[in-house]
Design a protein that fits this description.
disordered C terminus, mainly alpha, two-stranded antiparallel sheet, about 350 residues, 2 domains
């Protein structure tokens, strides 16, 4: 019995570290109802963290339903009756009565472990919060009800960019559509600005000495790679978090983002080493027969590469435009609907 109590305490401690626990702790009023996805996320989190206890309880009492186990896990942690009722989609009165029905199913061993304060033959109205609670719902202080809200968090262009850079190596959690696409827009602007800078510098090459031209070419080449690497990592991590938002595996980002990017860099390097760009610049000086053979040889891999990249791009746009799951999912809380405890809407 002592081992069971220790295991139960470990399960409770693990659940207390989850986002679902904090959601239940902050729940005070049915003005902000849990969504179906939020209830499902809570049930999954409870099932995952209390799995060792549930397995033993099912073995001892096969007639226990999933809702019975969920109720036991929530009630022993002293959550508000109204929060438990919201999870089970029942009335608070039904929650108060359920413990009496549970004790008829559970053997005394489990009653002593789960509800040591509740005597087997007691007629007291015991709930998850106290051993005696009036049937009427306790009116909560207005200040508490006011300060606990579920609201939509706003995401601006600047906040999206700063969020992505602050989560430079973070792949855990979720990213909403505005965060992903604002950062995509930021990367596009950076690339355009670099292209403009490169054009301006290259336009003054004729007025420079050979040594200065060489220096600027090395500078542009180095800056190009540094810039790409600087935005590549946060672009990949925000892509993973965006996939998490639609409850998809982050490994899909390897197919949609990383592999096409690596192939693009490799293709660019291969074209440079093979003299493709130099040949394309000199097409006008080639005789017709040589021009036809050159185009036939070089255009095929280029067309294949473009078809691949365009196909992946279309698939990526479709996937990353999908709406995120409402409420918590497997990968974390909803990045749009957040629970605020300070009474002020997040900006």
């Amino acid at each position: 019995m002592e081992n069971l109590t220790t295991t139960l305490n470990e399960c409770i401690e693990r659940f207390s570290e989850t986002e679902e626990y904090r959601m239940l702790q902050g729940y005070r009023t049915r003005d902000n109802r849990f969504t179906f996805d939020e209830r499902l996320a809570i049930a999954k989190s409870v099932e995952r963290t209390f799995a060792p206890i549930f397995e033993l309880m099912r073995a001892d009492v096969p007639t226990l339903k999933d809702s019975d186990l969920l109720f036991c896990a929530l009630s022993i942690q002293h959550f508000e009756t109204i929060a438990i009722a919201e999870c089970l989609t029942v009335t608070p009165e039904a929650v108060r009565m359920r413990k009496f029905r549970i004790r008829e199913k559970l053997p005394s061993k489990w009653m002593d472990i789960l509800y040591p304060e509740m005597k087997r033959n007691s007629n007291a109205d015991v709930t998850s919060q106290t051993s005696a609670e009036p049937k009427a719902e306790i009116s909560l202080p207005s200040q508490i009800t006011k300060n606990v809200k579920v609201m939509k968090e706003k995401m601006s262009f600047g906040k999206a960019v700063s969020t992505c850079f602050s989560k430079y190596f973070t792949i855990n959690g979720r990213a909403r559509r505005s965060e992903y696409w604002y950062f995509y827009l930021f990367c596009l602007i950076v690339i355009i600005l670099f292209a403009m800078l490169k054009s301006i510098i290259e336009s003054i090459y004729p007025f420079m000495g050979e040594s200065m031209v060489c220096v600027f070419r090395i500078f542009l080449e180095t800056f190009y790679w540094v810039l790409n690497i600087a935005i590549l990592i946060p672009s990949f991590t925000v892509s993973v978090r965006r996939l998490h938002d639609i409850d998809a595996s982050g490994w899909l980002a390897v197919i949609l983002c990383l592999i096409p990017t690596i192939i693009a860099f490799a293709f660019d390097a291969a074209m440079k080493s093979s003299g493709f760009y130099t040949t394309m610049d000199n097409l006008g000086n080639m005789p017709p027969s040589e021009l036809a053979n050159t185009l036939k040889t070089m255009i095929k891999p280029l067309v294949a590469f473009l078809f691949f990249e365009i196909g992946v791009l279309i698939a990526s746009v479709i996937v990353f435009c999908l709406r995120g799951t409402e409420g918590p999912n497997t990968y974390g809380p909803d990045p749009i609907r957040v629970i605020s405890t300070d009474g002020e809407e997040s900006k």
